[in-house]
Amino acid sequence: MRRRWTVEKGQPLTEMDKKILAAQKAGHTVPSRNLIRTPEEIEGIRRSGAVNTALLDMVGREIKEGLSTGALDDMVYQFTMDHKGIPADLGYEGFPKSCCISIDNVVCHGIPDHNVFFKAGQIVNVDVTTILDGYYADASRMFVIGETTEEKRRLVDVTLECLHVGMAAAKPYSYVGDIGFAIQCHAQKNGYSVVRELCGHGVGLKFHEAPEIPHYGKPGTGMLLAPGMVFTIEPMINMGSREVHFSREDGWTVTTRDGMPSAQWEHTFVMTENGLEILTQ
């Protein structure tokens, strides 16, 4: 069902109402009011984001050659619980671990394993989502194990740049497609491809909410981005082809079809009247 912006009869129109109603009248997709977070809800997500950020800081201190991905996942679980949080990944639609650890050609949703060990030269994405007092915050970072190749390092760096150009394109009353277009242009300019089967998403009161945030697209398309909306941007950028493979064995792991490396960075944001604010930094 198409979302609509409504104003209660007799209520005066705010500037935000006027802008959203104008976009709606012009035929654009707009958010419904239940996607606009209250100041109290944003504060709750921000507190969850602080724990999530501290968790990724801990990962950065502990991740190293010879450590198993399963051992790192154990640390993620313990750290989250020690800070009165809940790891949102654990048990989500049957996911068996507390975080996703994706190495080299694993695009996302890599499952930690006590029999898999980090090796020098690998690039690793660790994706964690924390629930604190019912509020969700979601972020991921790339880590390099020891020394790696110039090609892998460049992929990691350009992927972070893709996140930043997507952030810059996300202005109040812009559109989801503006984000994807900026990311796609920057990735392709640098010789990389953008994964299309997976995307960013609304977050905050649930793990995944509307809108979906693709990392490719056309300007002026997709949902209008209004102040108070909370969502992730999390570009997955491949060194080679954008084609991916979904594992039938574990039902989760996504890899590049050509076996070449992939990278991803992610933050949770709230849209404000002045632009994006990072809630996981």
Overview of the molecule:
With 281 residues, the chain is α+β, with helices and mostly antiparallel strands. It is 30% helix and 23% strand. The chain has five helices and 15 strands. Helix 2 crosses helix 3 (69-82). The protein is globular, with a radius of gyration of 19 Å. The model has no long low-confidence stretch (mean pLDDT 97).
How many alpha or pi helices? 5
Major sheet: size, sense and barrel closure? 4 strands, antiparallel
Q: How big a fraction of the residues is strand? A: 15-25%
What spatial form do the alpha-carbon principal axes imply? globular
Q: How helix-rich are the residues, as a percent range?
A: 25-40%
Please provide the ordered H/E string of secondary-structure elements.
HHHEEEEEHHEEEEEEEEEE
* Alpha carbon gap, first and last residue: 34 Å
Radius of gyration: 19 Å
Query: Poorly predicted ranges (pLDDT <50, ≥5 residues)?
Result: none
| Count of distinct strands | 15
Roughly what is the average pLDDT, rounded to an integer?
A: 97
Class per helix and strand makeup: alpha+beta
Please describe the structure with a list of short key phrases separated by commas or semicolons.
alpha+beta, 281 residues, 30% helix, four-stranded antiparallel beta sheet, 5 helices, three-stranded antiparallel beta sheet
SSE blueprint and pairings:
Blueprint: H1 15-25, H2 39-62, H3 69-82, E1 86-87, E2 100-103, E3 106-108, E4 123-132, E5 135-144, H4 150-169, H5 176-189, E6 193-194, E7 200-202, E8 209-213, E9 230-233, E10 236-238, E11 244-246, E12 254-256, E13 262-264, E14 267-272, E15 275-278
Antiparallel strand pairs: 1-4, 2-4, 3-12, 4-5, 6-10, 7-8, 9-14, 10-13, 11-12, 14-15
Helix pairs in contact: 2-3, 4-5
